[in-house]
Amino acid sequence: MPIVVNGCSFTHEFHLDKENRWTTKIGAIENLAIGGGSNERIFHTTIEYLNHTTPDVLIIGWTNPERFMLSHSNGSRVAVTPALAFNEQSGEKHDVHRKFYYKYCHNQFVNFENTLHYMIHLQEYCKSKQIKLLYFNSFFTKVDDTYLTGLARNAFMSREDEDIERMGIQANTDVLRKLIQKLDASIWIKELWYSMEEHCKKFPLHDDVHPGTEGSNDWAELVKKYL
Amino acid sequence: MTKIICVSGDSFTHEYLQKPEDRWSTHIGATHNIAMGGAGNDRIFNSTIKFLNETTPDTLIIGWSSTARGSLYHNSGSRVIVAPHRCFDEHTGEDYDDIKKFYYSNLHNDFVNFENVLNYMIFIQEYCKSKGIKLLYFRSVMDEQIDQQSLMKISESAFMSRDNPEITKQGIKHNSNKLTKLINKLDKDIWIKEFWYSMKEHIDNNYPGQMKGPAHALPINAVKEWGEIVKSCL
């Protein structure tokens, strides 16, 4: 049963020996994840993979929508996070990309809305291709009304006066709510938005604050129940 | 019941310089036109998957654009069209020269954009096949040719080790093979008229000298004829 996984550092688990990673324990044959990866990267590397291989099981750990992915003019990929931007292939730091992205391009509403679209699209694709799909949330914030309204304040809208702005925030909150309603809660590990970070916090953390061996092992046991 | 026909692409599909009644998308009875003049393929792909998340059309027609173009977001939440002739905000029309300069100095790569668009084409093709959506493709201003020599040329810009000329040669060959494999996955039968057919080349060849300016003001007769060609594929 070929299992493919994608995500960020919670799926890459570069900080653990290979035999201690949850992805090894569940028998994943391919790990497309990379530490610092964004949802943009997760979506695009997943479709590239699906274009040449149809796995039996695909597991995706969605990450913090604060991150992004940019291409580099030399043809490589740059992972952009609030703290660091680095070249996926060479490891080189690209602070100029990070500064550009957060100064000109970053918008929380856009990134979260895009993430929801990626989730829905892969969900529908996998359903039609009979690929078993499992989602979890690596570590981003709890998605509740306060969070959605906060994001919607950043959406592109007319801000001519307070009433118009209030209506814009409401309309954009509804946009996000409608997208969330399209998510299939039954493909999420444990429950919709369930987070690996939350799940593993009862176990000792690794030095770099990611789940350690015990937490990762427990997560593997949980994932196995859904396979 | 009216069939849902969605068209997606750049100015060749948006046709904002034509009166609505003169547009080929109107002529074929398109119910949704999600194209945008100046759009690159990232924008075309993203707006198409967003549309498909909301609606399952009977027919989807995509005119793929120039790989010289990019797509970014603005921190105001709007989308930015990045093209060599102009970089502007889709919602406000404001020009962003800083973003354009950064994109072409630090982000743009010919190989990446071409590889990406091939992946987009394949992914949407497979999605539509599995959902029973009739899909049609054409090229608008994408000028890449797909013969071996052209693919080798595009592959020169791929990320690879350039330690010595022999390694670089192998890298170019390897990346050219990657593109060939992707091209081989494209379904030749879903292309309007013939595989890799281009609307721009069609108009250039049949209405020489009549397409004007960077905004591609299309001759009305050419657009009408294109509408007939598309109709014959529906």
How would you explain this protein's 3D organization?
The complex is a heterodimer of chains A (227) and B (234). With 227 residues, chain A is an alpha/beta fold. Chain A has two domains: 3-66 and 106-225, Rossmann fold (3-Layer(aba) Sandwich), CATH 3.40.50.1110; 71-105, no CATH class. Helix content of chain A is 44%, strand content 13%. Chain B has two domains: 5-68 and 109-143 and 188-224, SGNH hydrolase (Rossmann fold); 75-107, no CATH class. Helix content of chain B is 45%, strand content 13%. A four-stranded parallel sheet of chain B has the order 2-1-3-7. A three-stranded antiparallel sheet of chain B has the order 4-5-6, sandwiched between helices. In chain B, strand 5 and strand 6 form a beta hairpin. The two termini of chain B are 16 Å apart. Chain A binds chain B through residues 44, 47-48, 50-52, 70-76, 89, 96-97, 100, 103-107, 109-110, 114, 117, 120-121, 124-125, 128-129, 154-157, 179, 182, and chain B through 46, 49-50, 52-53, 72-78, 80, 91, 96, 98-99, 102, 105-109, 111-112, 116, 119-120, 122-123, 126-127, 130-131, 157-160, 181-182, 185.
> What is the first-to-last residue Cα distance of chain A?
10 Å
Number of strands of chain A: 7
Poorly predicted sequence stretches spanning 5 or more consecutive residues of chain A: none
Query: What fraction of the residues of chain B are assigned to beta strands by DSSP?
Result: 5-15%
**Which two chains have the most extensive interface, and how many residues on each?**
A-B, 38 and 41 residues
Q: From the 3D structure, determine the CATH topology of the largest domain in chain A.
A: Rossmann fold
Order of SSEs of chain A, N→C?
EHHEHEEEEHHEHHHH
Give the CATH H-level superfamily of the largest domain in chain B.
SGNH hydrolase
Helix percentage range of chain A = 40-55%
